[in-house]
Amino acid sequence: MVLKSCCVYSVGVVSVLMLILGISLVLTSVFPHLVQSMVKKQVVLKNGTDAFEAWKDPPAHIYMQFYFFNLTNPQEVLDGERPAVVEIGPYTYREYRPMEQIDFQDNGTKVTAVNSKTYIFQHNMSRGPESDLIRTVNIPAMTVMERFKDNSLEANLISAYMRGTGEGLFTTRTVGELLWGYEDGLLKALKVLRPDLDDVFGLFYKNNASNDGEYVFFTGQQNSRDFSRVDTWKGESSLNWWTSDECNMINGTIGTSFHPVITKNDMLYIFSSDLCRSLYTVYEEDVTVKGITGYRFVPPSSVFANLTVNPDNAGFCVPAGNCLGSGLLNVSVCKEGAPIIMSSPHFYQADEKFAQDIFGMTPNKEEHQTAIDINPLTGVVLQAAKRLQINVYVEQIPNFSQTGNVRTVVFPVAYLNESATIDDAAAKKLKGIGVQQNVVENIPFMLIGLAIIVGGIFMLLVCQQKVPESTTAERQPLLSS
């Protein structure tokens, strides 16, 4: 009987100890930290790891869509009226962007590579063929006019040549020419005087089947938060286009991968050679992509805000002090002097006046916001959409009759949507990691549940124990009469 009681109470002690252990494990987050530690060791740029293979040749299908703004009232614009445009697109290309010329350095802590990009036209995903015609601003002509506007003699000669050849402020070109390049008559004529001048112009001229220069990335071997972070680009650790050291910094990854164990309080930095600058993104909301939980990160409006809103952006005003307004970035300094201005599509998050200056602008968050959905444990990009608009600064130039009485306006030419979604095979693998994570992290709760079950068994055993019957002597009164 005594032995049986000892066993029963031992069950009670075990249940209490299991409960205490389970609660302690929950409070100290031992198992979540264990999972994170294991992932950090696996997410590194090293031959043989899944992270390296995904970084080297992204498994996701990447598509680049282009939307053009066709000008419908060119003569009225020259007379001083507001431009009216109609969005035409998409023209879709499948994008392949493997890392090439890979070379590990500094005992595997860094790796050099070039990110080559190739675009293949997808007719079935496009509005029409690449031969579709688009009327837009004549960017080569506008660039030349801006460059020579302060030199009356040269300006008059160039203006006379343009009149003779029929070159004007606007041009009509095919989608293929506008994207990948065409021989421009004005540039060809100027090349006689300036042999170093390229007489071919295209928004993405020389960008197909090429790369944007050599990168040096951190592998994450020493610090997981450095995974795929850019150390140098084209041999430089900073840029030289902007007017402040802060704006010239090269920060973050190139946007295709991020460090593991991401929290909602993190700022994720991205370096974009298209924008000639680094930018940052912040958490916006939880999302689910193909059954996988993710965090959505977006660039806040402060990234492209005017210096009156965000003083840190003063360095992006070029020349110094020449600021266009919130939502715009003058990239002429890194585009060979072309008066190119970048923004979000339809001037989303820009000062309202820029959208109001152009008839046909309808900015909205769903279609025009840049967003990246990331699995917080692994840092894998589940879904992404990079959306940028290419604009040209147009103004009346007295020495060039071709500008007529045109308003000073930021004229939209085209915008791009570079999007990607994780493929099914990678999603399945990531789901498996998620299941393992849930199992390991729930071990303390399983322990607590088991402790409660054992405790219930203990109570049942205690209740079932029979109270021993008293003897005859024990039932006799203590005092007899």
From TrEMBL:
What would you give as a GO molecular function for this chain, any one? Answer: scavenger receptor activity
Gene from which the chain derives: SCARB2
Q: Does the keyword rRNA-binding apply?
A: no
Name of this chain's protein: Scavenger receptor class B member 2
The places in or outside the cell where this protein is found are:
Membrane
Its source organism is: Oreochromis niloticus (Nile tilapia)
Signal peptide per UniProt: none
Per UniProt, the keywords (alphabetical) are: Glycoprotein, Membrane, Transmembrane, Transmembrane helix
Its primary localisation, in coarse terms, equals membrane
The membrane spanning regions, by residue number, are: 7-31, 443-463
One Pfam family cited in the UniProt record for this chain: CD36
